[in-house]
Every structure is written in C-alpha cells, then in structure tokens.
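Ticket opened by: R.M.
Priority: normal
Category: complex prediction / small molecule

The reporter submitted a protein together with adenosine monophosphate and asked that the result be attached to this ticket for the collaborator who will pick it up next week. Submitted input follows.
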Amino acid sequence: MDLKNIIRNVSDFPKPGIQFKDITTLLLNPPAFQYALNCFIERYKSMGIDAIVAVESRGFIFGSVIAHSLKCPLVLARKKGKLPAEKISESFALEYGWDTIEMHTDSLKESQRVIIIDDLLATGGTVSAVIKLIQQLEAIPIEAGFVVELPVLKGRDVLQPVPVFSLVQFDDI
Ligand code: AMP
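Result attached by the on-call engineer:
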C-alpha cells in the first residue's frame, strides 16, 4: 500500500517553509487506515507488550486502536494542564520556546514493556520527553512507532537507545 501518496503534503502550514504531513487524508481512506494500523498490530502482537502510550493528539487516533487490538492498556501522554489526577511532567524545546507533556503517575507500573505511538517523528523532542516520563515510572520503552518519519531531522538519533519504527519516510521537511 502506497501510504506516501495517500498522506497529503500542505506547504507553508502552520508557517512559511514547513511541509506539513497531513494524515487526515489517510483517515479518510479506510483500506489505507486499516493497513497502517495492521502494520503496527502485526509488529507488536508478539513482542510481549504491556501498554501503549499514545501521544496527544494524533497519536491517540492510532494508539487507541492498537491498544484495543492488542488487548493492553492505553496510556495518554497529554499536553500540560489536561490530565486531572496526580501526574509527572517533562518540558522539551520547540523551535520557539518550550512545551510540556504529562502522564498520570498511576498509568504505568514498574517493568511494564511499553510502545509509544505518535503520528510523526520530526526532531524527536516530543517523544524523548515521553520516554523520560516512562522511565520515571520505571517502565521500559521497547520502541517508538510512527506513521511518518522525517529522517533529515534525525529524531531517530535523539531517541536512542529506544528503537524507532515508521511506516513512511519523507525527505522534504
Ligand atoms: P518533534 O517533537 O519535533 O518530533 O515533532 C513531532 C510532533 O510535531 C508530532 O506530534 C507531529 O504531529 C508534529 N509535527 C512536526 N512536524 C510536522 C510536520 N512537518 N507535519 C506534520 N506534523 C508535524
């Protein structure tokens, strides 16, 4: 399945110079959406996974279906101020300024084997903050799975030693 041509490129969004990879066109295409989900499910079903950590907000779309299929807990990594109960936070640098991601302290247990799911890997800042939260809870990040990877930005190196799996790679950013 040629996911590369199904994911829409929008130039200059949200600001000039950015090539935005728009996965809404994948969501509109049931065979493509199902194919993408099955790639993750087939990969992770025999890896002894205890939980899926999905990253707000597009990671929720994919992560929830994967967790449902694997019959394992779904943990939400959310932007600052969204989670109501006791939580831990990690800040990370954006191009301009900082952002913060949070997880509930009771969302993972020690030694649980975890897969992180997000729609896109760019610089790796977001998911490296999520990895730190998982490690603070003494769970084990086994792999980070993405629909899209922008290899030019070397996010894969930033996430080391956690392995990266992606369905589609784009060389323009
Ligand atoms: P990063 O922390 O740099 O790896 O950025 C990853 C997050 O930013 C993901 O949650 C993406 O949804 C979003 N993002 C960054 N760059 C793009 C892009 N070119 N197209 C679409 N989403 C992007």
